[in-house]
Structure to design on (686 residues):
């Protein structure tokens, strides 16, 4: 990794808090993060550690309380709808729960058509749009003919999540924020989906931020790992350093909590 | 969508409510086509004619008469005339005349009359009896005698030439006319009201106007509530603060008081049915707005809304496509409740005399108001107000039933 390069996306002192006075909770506390082009990082932490809030701040879905986010070295400006649209051409997300990621009243085609339209394909002829949708579906091993004119709830969870990847394939963003993309998926589909995601990364050349509670997954996919506890990064560095030689007790606990087959579970740390 | 409709129509409660409501709508639509009288035309001279079939006496005289010899005709005639009060009075006299009480049976008409005619003496002075009571007994005696006499009644007409009465015919006690041959018959299933208007025709027309008022009020209230709720919930921040402030302001003022004040300030002449509907609509949107706002707040952070944002959709697009369909079931239910509460609010206002002006259309509330002012409830003229009450109850009942049925479909957790 060439550290001399300018960071692609960086967060400087990002803080997000909810509520006032006594009920004030700080979900994200003074986070500094640099993300370089082509890198895969993981943000690991248990539930409630502020991972999802951080991802939403990075996506620009919610505004940070203080701190700044820099995109391509320039302070991010998402003050208007048009600027947000421009920003979201570069950064996209896959959400945790495929079942709630779709508008159940819209057919599946509309999800993919939205992506084509966003990439400036509003006036493409119909055949070309269909061709693009077929290509995107076949990339994630889905058959477009089986999906067209169907509603999201007619699909399985794995199919839905793969369709989300097909969406990213059409959008081709610079950065992908994957917020626990496989946590709601069964173990067999999980590997396929991760492989497809990694395949997509090679194809498009994306930078990926993985948000996960699964430290095994983080080790498997990422270059750098950030361990998050109560809104702060407690440990960060290369995946090998952090996971094979953890310094913080919190990291050790996370590693110990990974269940292993053929081994009795050690519940003393829970 | 089709699937949900199928489910809704399989719910027993919804279907029952829907059938009642549709029956009311059908009656309201088709009744005026069959009976084309103006609903407010005054046909009866006098107040509160009881329900029944009204046969023209004049036309009966000129109709063909048929002779029927029926055994119980006299008994029926006397039974009809001799009401319970008269029977008790007869008993009082007989007891005063010295007949033991055990021998008097007020239910046995024949025996009672026999005892009366053998014992009654208009000259006899019963101690403690007022003059008015004495005259009453005389009148009763005459009436009973004329009923029992076998003589025919004479029909007289004034001769215009010499201004003298001339007999033109007689009516025997055994004479009958066929109702089908009498030229003028009017069926008044619910009698007439205080102004002598046919209550049924008036009621159907009033139901139509009240339903219209309910619909207009419901549409206005739902539109205002939905718009404000969506804006406050989705945009949040300062817009939310302002809208919530206005909503809270309306909540602390009881809507009915507001309704009374507005109606009063408009003035009787300006208050048409439509004006009242608009006023009701503008005072009852509050709870819809609040409920929609809270639902939208819980929806706006869902992943599918985030995804829609990330797909570059505008706020209007997101509200219409990603928020509205999710709360539509609730909004429809709220709309139905708004209609029924609009009808109730109109009835409440009209009873207080603050409803639409009384000259052009009847409404359910106005009918109640008229019945109340002319003391139908004290005089026991149930047909003037009871059908109105039943209609209001049926409309609101059917709508609430539909609502409960839909609620159980849309919120499966509530299903029993």
């Amino acid at each position: 990794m060439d550290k001399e390069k300018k960071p692609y996306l960086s967060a400087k002192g990002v803080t997000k808090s909810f509520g006032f006075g006594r009920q004030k909770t700080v979900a994200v506390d003074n986070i500094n993060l640099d993300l370089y082009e082509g890198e895969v990082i993981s943000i690991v932490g248990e539930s409630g550690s502020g991972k999802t809030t951080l991802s939403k701040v990075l996506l620009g879905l919610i505004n940070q309380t203080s701190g700044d986010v820099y995109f391509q070295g320039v302070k991010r400006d998402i003050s208007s709808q048009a600027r947000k649209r421009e920003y979201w051409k570069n950064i996209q997300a896959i959400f945790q729960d495929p079942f709630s990621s779709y508008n159940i009243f819209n057919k599946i085609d509309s999800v993919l058509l939205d992506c084509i339209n966003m990439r400036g394909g509003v006036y493409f002829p119909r055949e070309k749009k269909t061709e693009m949708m077929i290509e995107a579906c076949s990339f994630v091993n889905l058959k477009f003919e089986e999906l067209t004119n169907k509603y999201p709830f007619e699909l399985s969870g794995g199919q839905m999540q793969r369709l989300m990847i097909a969406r990213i394939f059409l959008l081709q963003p610079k950065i992908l924020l994957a917020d626990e993309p496989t946590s709601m998926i069964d173990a067999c589909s999980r590997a396929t989906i991760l492989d497809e995601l990694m395949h997509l990364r090679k194809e498009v050349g994306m930078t990926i931020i993985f948000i996960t509670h699964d430290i095994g997954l983080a080790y498997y996919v990422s270059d750098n790992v950030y361990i998050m506890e109560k809104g702060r990064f407690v440990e960060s560095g290369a995946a090998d350093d952090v996971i094979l030689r953890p310094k913080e007790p919190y990291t050790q606990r996370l590693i110990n909590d990974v269940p292993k087959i053929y081994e009795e579970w050690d519940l003393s740390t829970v | 969508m089709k699937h949900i409709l199928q489910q809704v129509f399989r719910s027993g409660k919804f279907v029952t409510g829907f059938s009642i409501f549709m029956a009311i709508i059908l009656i309201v639509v088709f009744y005026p086509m069959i009976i084309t009288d103006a609903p407010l035309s005054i046909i009866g001279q006098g107040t509160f004619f009881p329900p029944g079939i009204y046969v023209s006496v004049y036309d009966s005289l000129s109709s063909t008469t048929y002779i029927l010899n029926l055994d119980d005709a006299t008994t029926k005639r006397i039974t009809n005339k001799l009401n319970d009060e008269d029977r008790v009075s007869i008993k009082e006299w007989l007891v005063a005349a010295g007949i033991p009480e055990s021998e008097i049976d007020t239910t046995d008409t024949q025996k009672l009359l026999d005892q009366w005619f053998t014992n009654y003496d208009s000259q006899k002075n019963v101690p403690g009896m007022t003059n008015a009571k004495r005259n009453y007994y005389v009148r009763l005696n005459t009436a009973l005698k004329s009923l029992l006499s076998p003589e025919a009644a004479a029909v007289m007409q004034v001769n215009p030439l010499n201004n003298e009465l001339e007999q033109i015919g007689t009516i025997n006690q055994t004479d009958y006319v066929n109702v089908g041959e009498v030229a003028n018959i009017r069926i008044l299933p619910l009698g007439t009201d205080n102004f002598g208007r046919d209550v049924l025709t008036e009621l159907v027309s009033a139901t139509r106007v009240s339903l219209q008022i309910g619909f207009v009020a419901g549409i206005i209230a739902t539109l205002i509530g939905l718009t404000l709720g969506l804006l406050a919930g989705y945009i949040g921040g300062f817009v939310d603060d302002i809208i919530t402030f206005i909503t809270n302001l309306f909540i602390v003022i009881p809507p009915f008081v507001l309704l009374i004040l507005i109606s009063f300030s408009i003035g009787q002449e300006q208050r048409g049915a439509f004006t009242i509907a608009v006023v009701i609509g503008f005072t009852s949107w509050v709870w819809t707005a609040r409920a929609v706002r809270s639902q939208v707040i819980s929806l706006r952070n869902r992943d599918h809304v985030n995804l829609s944002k990330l797909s570059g959709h505008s706020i209007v697009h997101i509200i219409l496509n990603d928020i509205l369909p999710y709360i539509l079931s609730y909004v429809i239910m709220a709309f139905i409740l708004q209609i029924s509460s609009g009808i109730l609010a109109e009835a409440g206002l009209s009873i207080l005399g603050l409803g639409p002006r009384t000259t052009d259309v009847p409404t359910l509330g106005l009918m109640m108001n008229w019945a109340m002012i002319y003391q139908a409830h004290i005089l026991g003229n149930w047909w003037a107000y009871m059908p109105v009450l039943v209609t209001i109850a049926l409309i609101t009942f059917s709508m609430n039933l539909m609502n409960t049925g839909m609620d159980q479909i849309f919120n499966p957790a509530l299903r029993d």
Q: What stands out?
A: Chain B touches chain A through 17 residues (CB under 8 Å). The beta strands of chain B are 52-55, 65-67, 153-159, 164-171, 175-177, 185-188. The two ends of chain B are 23 Å apart (CA to CA).
